[in-house]
Amino acid sequence: MNNIAIYTLTSELHDTQAVSAATQEFLGSLNISYDFRDNDYSDYGSHPLDIIYVRTGGAESIFLRLLPVLLKKTAGTTFYLLTSGKSNSLAASLEILSYLRQQGISGEVIHGEAAHISQRINTLLCVNEALQKLKDCKLGVVGKPSDWLISSTADYHVVKRTAGIELTDIPMKELLDDIRQIPLEEVQAEGQEQHIREALPGAQQIYHALKTLAERHQLQGLTLRCFDLLTAVHNTGCMALAQLNSEGIVAGCEGDIPTLLTMTLTQALTGLSGFQANPAHINPETGEILLAHCTIPLNMVERYELDTHFESGIGVAIRGYIKPGPVTIFKVSGDLRRHFIAEGELLRCEGKPDLCRTQTIIRLNNPQQARYFLTEPIGNHHVVVPGHVGALMEELVKNFQR
Question: Model-level pTM?
């Protein structure tokens, strides 16, 4: 079964053979894979993306008769009306969309040149597939947010109602108990300084404990009150979080729930969790920003080095080097009502000793967006994602802010 299904609306006044020939020509020009359901709406709502192809004028009353049935199948959905513009199909689509808006129902007419239509459909498919993943998503908050994250909380009920994501609290004690039950194993670390070699077995112990916890609670992601580990086990979660992220388990730092949500949305769209980091320096005139943190998904970097955790000087942290090129900075609020998206270029990574270990210099395409950080930031942590994916992110967050 394809992820796209195309249904049709056709006035009985039009010649069937002519309409069929025009349909074949038009849909063939879009270069997409789809299931053609014609006027059989029995499985409407069962695909990631359902499209109603309005083929002719005079189809408005047919849609009106269908609407109650379709709403029962897909309450709260958006109706996508595809039109070629032939046989007054655009006029009919506009009339249908106008009626939907009057009823408070979301809809969109997909129309234009073939390349534009194809791009729009692929964008909608990517977003709808991400939305379906989120509906089955369960995230853990291991310990409470760190004490200094006074704005980085979330409304669990709003997140569940809006995005389908379930947030669950897990006591820090449960993780610490798991850590103690996992035996220390020798880790090969040739070329590393002695204090790093000595800390690596404990870092791997934390990794296995977090993975065990994620499996027990059936989590797709988690955020960890990681600084508690500094005193509890004299180590850090930096290596563990880097490994988990690279394996597809979203893993965030400091119990920061909005950033965990941001990373989860990022993974649903792109397959990567993203780099959680905080700005250390901003040039509002040039739009250059230094973002740094002590961990990064290992599948985001070209290479990495091991060092100690910056603030404490203990444990194991990651100094990662991301390939220079296009990136997107992303952040959503804890109730998903606010967001920030900015595309830019990652110029270089640095290794200064007086900062968190992974350090990225990013220049925003629109330098004026740097003012956001200084006037209306959504917390301190933001997520860096490879590629220019701002349009996809904007399309996704629209679903949470209707």
Answer: 0.93
